[in-house]
Amino acid sequence: MRVALMVTCVNDAMFPETGKAVVTLLRRLGVDVEFPAAQTCCAQPMVNTGYLDEAVPVVRTFVDAFAGYDAIVTPSGSCAGSARHQHGIVAKRSGDAGLVQAVAETAPKTYELTEFLVDVLGVTDVGAYFPHRVTYHPTCHSLRMLGVGDRPRQLLEKVRGIRLTDLPKAEECCGFGGTFAVKNADTSIAMGADKARHVRDTGAEVLVAGDNSCLMHIGGVLSRQRSGVRVMHLAEILASTEDAPVLAAPAAPTRAQEAPR
């Protein structure tokens, strides 16, 4: 099987360790994964903001970069959802029959990471080890657009040493929503604060999710609150083993831990 990694813009620019973790994990499972250097954005920001015509060349770049692969794997429910559901809308609007056909070939082969692991590879125990108390936030697009269901939890439950605790009101949006956080900042902050409160209520050391955009938003709130909770992408936990442990980035200190002034 010839597999390509779609790393996503936010991971490429801000969270490169997530992409590295996906490659480490897939290679450990015997998958020959490649990184097409020509990849750029999935076009979701343009589509979500209503710039469908401007999204056409971006979608065309996507299908060209990932043509010929048996599967396209991404550590983002949001970007996988864009490729599977939005690219067809953009291609049809363009009136380009060739683009419509190309999207019809790439869209169904694009998988969010947990879908690929559980549905394509047929594994839930990936040999991971992460001895920490963890709570999981299911991101909106993974739930509502892709329907990943309990696949992430199936994988987390098989991680050795993990102590997995339920997140209250887990299916509520964190408030990020891409440009929503900019255009509706007050509402976004309020939603993020609600999510952060529920995370703190779990007593977890680490908040895990399948989209770094959501973790960036919630993690920013947790950091400003000096909660002591770390955030970590699911791929990094699944890549972690006894021999090669992966650690979350240090959390901001709690108020009790701050140095006296």
Descriptors for this entry?
261 residues, alpha/beta, Rossmann fold, 2 domains, four-stranded parallel β-sheet, 13 helices, globular, disordered C terminus, L-lactate dehydrogenase complex protein LldE
Can you put this structure into words, describing what you see?
The chain has 261 residues and is α/β, with parallel strands linked by helices. The protein has two domains: 119 residues, Rossmann fold (3-Layer(aba) Sandwich); 125 residues, 3-Layer(aba) Sandwich (Rossmann fold), CATH 3.40.50. It contains 13 helices and eight strands. The strands form two sheets. It has a four-stranded parallel beta sheet, with helices on both faces. Helix 12 links the parallel strand 7 and strand 8. Helix 5 packs antiparallel against helix 6. The N and C termini lie far apart (58 Å).
Please tally the helical runs, counting DSSP H or I stretches of 4 or more residues: 13
Q: Which structural class do the helices and strands define?
A: alpha/beta
The biggest beta sheet reads: 4 strands, parallel
SSE ordering? EHHEHHEHHEHEHHEHHEHEH
Number of strands: 8
Mean pLDDT: 92
Helices, strands, pairings?
Elements: E1 2-5, H1 9-14, H2 16-28, E2 32-34, H3 44-48, H4 52-65, E3 71-74, H5 77-94, H6 97-106, E4 110-112, H7 113-120, E5 133-136, H8 140-146, H9 151-157, E6 163-165, H10 180-183, H11 185-202, E7 206-209, H12 212-224, E8 230-233, H13 234-239
Parallel strand pairs: 1-2, 1-3, 3-4, 5-6, 5-7, 7-8
Domain Cysteine-rich: 3-80, 134-218
Protein name: L-lactate dehydrogenase complex protein LldE
Pfam family, one: CCG
